[in-house]
TrEMBL record:
Protein name: Biogenesis of lysosome-related organelles complex 1 subunit 5
Transmembrane regions: none
Cellular compartments per GO CC: BLOC-1 complex; transport vesicle
Family, similarity comment: Belongs to the BLOC1S5 family.
Organism: Caenorhabditis brenneri (Nematode worm)
UniProt-listed InterPro entries: Bloc1s5 (IPR017243)
Length: 131
């Protein structure tokens, strides 16, 4: 078992520094600040602060005046118009033609499957008759 003086000598600390973590903490803080500034995290933090301030300002804005002036109604109508335009873009323009095409493909596939089934039945009958 090692004695305290030998441990102190190995870690190169004076006895008072064993429980004083100021140097270690200071080094960690400066390393964190260096990494923070090098990665430009402060800019992201500034953006978060600006967004936070915008949220506070918007929550403190009286909206009754906007309703009274009709601005909210106009904005709602504008959003509704944009929504309708977006929904119109989602719907296929040639839906009827596409549905007719799919129905035709289904019919042709059914005819082909029926013909294959009939051909298989004929082969089975022929094989049964030849036995």
């Amino acid at each position: 078992m090692a004695s305290i003086p030998s441990v102190v000598r190995e870690i190169t600390l004076v006895g008072e520094q064993i429980f004083d973590h100021t140097q270690v903490v200071r080094a960690e803080i400066s390393r964190f600040v260096d990494r923070f500034e090098r990665n430009e995290r402060h800019r992201e933090f500034d953006g978060i602060l600006r967004a936070s301030h915008a949220l506070v300002e918007s929550s403190e804005t009286p909206v009754e005046g906007l309703f009274d002036m009709g601005k909210m109604q106009a904005m709602t109508e504008s959003v509704d118009d944009i929504t309708k335009k977006i929904q119109a873009l989602v719907e296929p323009k040639y839906q009827k033609e596409h549905d007719a095409y799919l129905e035709k493909v289904r019919e042709e596939q059914k005819k082909y499957v029926d013909a294959c089934r009939e051909q298989a039945m004929n082969k089975m009958r022929t094989m049964a008759a030849n036995r």
